[in-house]
Description:
5-stranded antiparallel sheet; globular; alpha+beta; 27% strand; 225 residues; 4 helices; binds the ligand Nc1nc2c(c(=O)[nH]1)N[C@H]1C(S)=C(S)[C@@H](COP(=O)(O)O)O[C@H]1N2; 24% helix; 5-stranded mixed sheet
Amino acid sequence: MGRRALLGMLATGAAGLAAAPYLQRGWEGFLASASQVDATGITGLLPNPGGFRYYSVVGSVPRKDETNYTLRIDGLVDRPTTYSLPQLRDLPQSRVVHDVVCTDGWRVNKTPFTGVKLADLLDAAGVRSEGKAVRFTCFDGAYTESLTLEQARRSDVLIALTLQDKPISHAQGGPVRLYVAPMYFYKSAKWLSGISVTDKVVPGYWEERGYAVDGWLDDADRHAA
Ligand SMILES: Nc1nc2c(c(=O)[nH]1)N[C@H]1C(S)=C(S)[C@@H](COP(=O)(O)O)O[C@H]1N2
Ligand SMILES: [Mo]
């Protein structure tokens, strides 16, 4: 069964369940309850006020903040490094404004993200000559993503700390998510915890299930940035 069909099927069941908790506890509270009844973890059922839909491939995700969040960069690098959230905030920040587009047919136009350029973290770690690609892992324990090294070095690829100029919420993958502006939003791994330089592209979670490894948006400038 395709993901879209599954979403349609789940929508009927979960919508009724969800109305009361949504009102009582707000969007994130609703999401927490929805993700418990939806064992598949595909909870992108209702648009929230910002136009985004919630996605997770697991039922519950631990919360991380400045006290316990870490981002590890390792693999084919000279200087494996672990960053805390305050350390990431202290690095030079970039702002990228682009349309967010999900393959399921929703979009949020002109969305600002800020964060550290992935290129800066790769340079700091010192990519070895055998390094050709980057693999991303998440503290949800399940989702993965990948980019070629060339894609990863684009200036519109961020280790994002803010979305719409506010700290990224837990529901949207905070405190730190990947943002790959020129590609479909499935490339933008939420709850990012690991960046590993590899010698070839390792297909990510959805890519093992049929999505394109190169997730370029139709209007993407594949050469610039
Ligand atoms: N860890 C993780 N990252 C993820 C996903 C996911 O299920 N888990 N879904 C992807 C997909 S398909 C989309 S469209 C966006 C959704 O982000 P949002 O929940 O902030 O709208 O996250 C992407 N990153
Ligand atoms: Mo998506």
